[in-house]
Amino acid sequence: MIKLISVAALIAAMAFPACAQVQVQVDDAWVRATVPQQKSTGAFMRLTAHGDARVVSISSPAAAVTEIHEMKMENDIMKMRAVQALDLPAGQAVELKPGGYHVMLINLKAQVKEGDMVPLTLVVEGKDGKRETLEVHATAKPLNQPQGQAMQHQQGHMPKH
Amino acid sequence: MSSVVRGVLAMVLIALLSACSPPEPPRFNSADMTGVEYGNGFRMLDGDGRERTLEEFQGKVVMMFFGFLQCPDVCPTALSRGVAVRELLGADADKLQMLFITVDPERDTPEALKSYVQRFDPSFIGLRDTVERTAEIAKSFNVFYAKVPTGDSYTMDHTATSFVFDPDGRLRLAVAHNLPPDLIAADVKTLLATTR
Ligand SMILES: [Cu+2]
């Protein structure tokens, strides 16, 4: 099985030479479904950068405004604030999950229904200051998804190098 | 008085005291709020515009949470936790009533609030009132909330503690946002077993 995966990885690496050094891997991207009239929701995922990088912006055609938010508890009060950038230390998985960071989709253009695919565009900046974009498709999970783990994994691709 | 008589009297006194002293107060995983007078005279409108009070939930444990619909994180987590607690209660699931109070009545319409909470469990009730009444109610629970501008919109800071009332409608517990469902279910069982 492991052999098969490494062979697949090798083939993938050969098929997309530009992606041979994919900088950021995205796993388990999901978004919380909404009810009609609900104007915002959160998207979650796991990001692993191969070299030090940071996410400098996220946008989505599904919402008027997309921000990276950090949720914090202070004296039992939940606070969430936009962060300017999200650091991705080399080789370290950074989780965007309930209780920590999330992608905040504000002023949704339509209800997000279970099973919808919400496109997200991440702009990632490497240590050298080079920016690259990453297209991610977040699957809409039920509103009542507790800590939600999307079933599928996906590899982020860097179309522009 | 002889020492024998004194000894006997002491024994009688101890026996009387232990017979009269109330049973050990129950111990909880959540913070014990017994005797704290929060939310007296609580009344609020539900998604259908009907006025709801705590009296109508006599015989049930009520768990109350303050939040808002645009909240991507702690609010759906608190409601999902309520679902998990109900599951852990098994046959007593219907003895737990979840109430979700919006601190964002300007955006959370009654219809949206109703469909939101019922997406978690059909028994859950969303409560909403005017901006002024909401402020009064939150104050009566020492609950904090505030609008925080973000983008061209706003988010809300808010207290993430849940409040639990016993089957007699008295405030008993304050539940931290991260207390796991099994510990809450144990507290609910204790309240069901020790009230009346
Ligand atoms: Cu947020």
Descriptive overview:
The complex is a heterodimer of chains A (161) and B (196). By secondary structure, chain A is mainly beta. Chain A has a single domain (23-155), classed as Immunoglobulin-like (Sandwich), CATH 2.60.40. Helices cover 9% and strands 50% of the residues of chain A. Chain A contains one helix and ten strands, in the order H-E-E-E-E-E-E-E-E-E-E. Chain A has one helix at 2-15; strands spanning 24-32, 40-49, 53-59, 63-74, 77-83, 86-88, 93-96, 101-108, 117-126, 131-141. In chain A, strands 1, 2, 3, 4, 5, 6, 7, 8, 9 and 10 form a ten-stranded mixed beta sheet that branches. In chain A, strand 9 (117-126) and strand 10 form a beta hairpin. Chain A starts with a helix and ends in a 20-residue tail after the last strand. Mean pLDDT of chain A is 83; it is low at 12-20 and 148-161. By secondary structure, chain B is α+β, with helices and mostly antiparallel strands. Chain B has one domain (27-194): Glutaredoxin (3-Layer(aba) Sandwich). Chain B has helices spanning 3-20, 74-89, 110-120, 131-140, 181-194, and strands spanning 31-32, 43-46, 51-53, 61-67, 96-102, 125-128, 145-150, 153-159, 162-165, 171-175. Chain B is elongated. Chain B starts with a helix and ends with a helix. In chain B, 40% of the residues are buried. The mean pLDDT of chain B is 90. Strand 5 (77-83) of chain A pairs antiparallel with strand 8 of chain B. The complex binds copper (II) ion. Copper (II) ion binds next to strand 8 of chain A.
